[in-house]
């Protein structure tokens, strides 16, 4: 993995509670990276990095992407009308919808 591939991971990771908590506990740069080992020195950061790469390696079928986009569009317009011109779709609603889609996939657990 190149440094360019770490940029989106680090940007996203910095927004998490895990990053904030680990940074406060360690009080050092938890994003220090070893190019030769292709891993972060901090074990929590490295675990997140490994999960990020595993998730990135699994393609999302176009059908699921299309269903998610259609659902968000529908919910956005419904909330736009209900909330006086504001597009309001809750993150929990989106997560629940995605979870339902994933569970409906062939071979899905749960």
TrEMBL record:
Native species: Acinetobacter baumannii (strain AB307-0294)
The protein's name in its UniProt record: Uncharacterized protein
Domain of life: Bacteria
């Amino acid at each position: 993995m190149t440094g360019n591939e770490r940029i989106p991971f680090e940007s996203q990771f910095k927004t998490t509670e895990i990053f904030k908590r680990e940074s406060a506990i360690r009080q050092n740069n938890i994003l220090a990276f070893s190019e030769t080992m292709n891993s972060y020195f901090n074990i929590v950061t490295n675990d997140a990095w490994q999960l990020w790469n595993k998730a990135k390696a699994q393609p999302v079928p176009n059908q699921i992407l299309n269903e998610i986009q259609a659902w968000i569009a529908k919910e956005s317009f419904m909330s736009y009308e209900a909330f006086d011109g504001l597009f309001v779709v809750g993150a929990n609603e989106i997560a629940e919808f995605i979870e339902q889609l994933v569970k409906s996939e062939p071979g899905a657990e749960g």
